[in-house]
Amino acid sequence: MKLTLGPIQYFWKRADVLDFYREAAGWPVHAIYLGETVCSKRREMRLRDWLALGEDLAEAGHEVVLSSLALVEAESELSALTRLVENGRFSVEANDLSAVQLCSERGVAFVAGPSLNCYNHETLALLQSCGMTRFVLSVDQGEAALRDLQEGMTRAGGTFPEVEVLAWGPLPLAYSARCFTARARNLGKDECAFSCLDYPEGLPLETRERQPFLRLNGIQVQSSACCDLAPDLESLRRSPVDFLRISPQAHGTGAVVARFEEALKSGMPPLPQGECNGYWHGAAGMDWIDAAQLMAGESREGP
User: Fold this and answer.
1) Phi/psi of residue 225, each to 5°?
2) Which residues pair with 287 in a beta bridge?
3) Which residue in 116, 34, 32 sits closest to 72, CA to CA?
4) Cβ pair 170, 202 in contact under 8 A
5) Is this structure's pTM higher than 0.85?
6) What DSSP designation does 28 have?
7) What is the pLDDT of residue 240?
8) What is the average per-residue pLDDT within 237-266?
9) Closest CA to 278 of 144, 151, 114
10) Handedness of CA 51, 199, 222, 38 (dihedral sign)
11) What is the DSSP letter of 75?
């Protein structure tokens, strides 16, 4: 398995983005995803900036993939998406079927992003016929669902593509035409005053009992809990997973990468640092399932 660095989910100032990737250039990650996936109003970085950054990261030895919006609503966004697909240099992470169609029409290989929701092998086969080479498992799917996809492809006589899973970071749960961050400030979506800039890791949302619940990130809703699959290294190795995705955070991402790299090199699952891994085990997403106890239980039930 190899590590990847997913696209930045939040709205950061341009200088902060450049500083982040300047540091990330030296991290032991195979692929780095660049681009805006949440909101087209976030224009601190333009396509030419992402392309220039991609050249620097490719020169540093990383595979570079340009990520598209997860929700395309306007003609202007479709035009920007077309320019991204036609960049002529880097492959694309398609997070919307508009991107899939554009890539297919232009013969551009692409990664199927997690927001495409590939729940059956027929969908995977269709995406493969359009040029998909890798897919990112939807965050609400786990090991059992992944094996079902693989078995379905095998029965159908297909070739199973490369698989990537989100192994670290808050889970992106939903997208909406409404901007939740602007709404929290009693602002309209078109008059949002770029409120997301004030929340570099999302706006925390609590229950009435003051328990952490969600993060609001513009039109995106994330889990409050941070997913951590590093302690599940053994089950990940048994699965058809090829890449572990780390979702960038405003602080400490380099240490997270180093922790995963050490676990992969040593083969020793580390102690948990995140708060949830339930989806991987077929449980509620916000749950934490102790991998060591689970393995011990399986051993007791075995022959």
Assistant:
1) -70, 145
2) none
3) 116
4) yes
5) yes
6) -
7) 96
8) 97
9) 144
10) negative
11) H
Other CB atoms closer than 10 Å to residue 240's CB: what's the count?
Answer: 15
Residue 2 has pLDDT above 80, yes or no: yes
How far is the C-alpha of 282 from the C-alpha of 179, rounded, in Å? 30
Q: Distance between CA atoms of 157 and 13, rounded to whole angstroms? A: 48
Task: Give the chain's length.
Answer: 303
Name the one residue in this structure whose structure tokens are 């498992």: 137
**Residue 287 and residue 276: Cα distance in Å, rounded?**
5
Query: 290: closest CA among 302, 273, 272?
Result: 272
Could you tell me which of 183, 199, 201, 214 has the C-alpha nearest to residue 250? 201
Which among 101, 35, 37, 115 is positioned nearest to 69, based on CA atoms? 37
Q: Where are the alpha helices (DSSP H) in the chain?
A: 14-24, 47-59, 75-85, 97-106, 121-130, 143-155, 180-184, 233-238, 253-266, 291-301
Tell me the domains of the chain and their CATH numbers: 2-171+225-274 (3.20.20.70)
- pLDDT band (50, 70, 90) for residue 291: confident
What is residue 212's predicted lDDT score, i.e. its pLDDT? 94
* pLDDT tens-digit readout, 180-229: 999 999 999 999 999 999 999 999 999 999 999 999 999 999 999 999 99
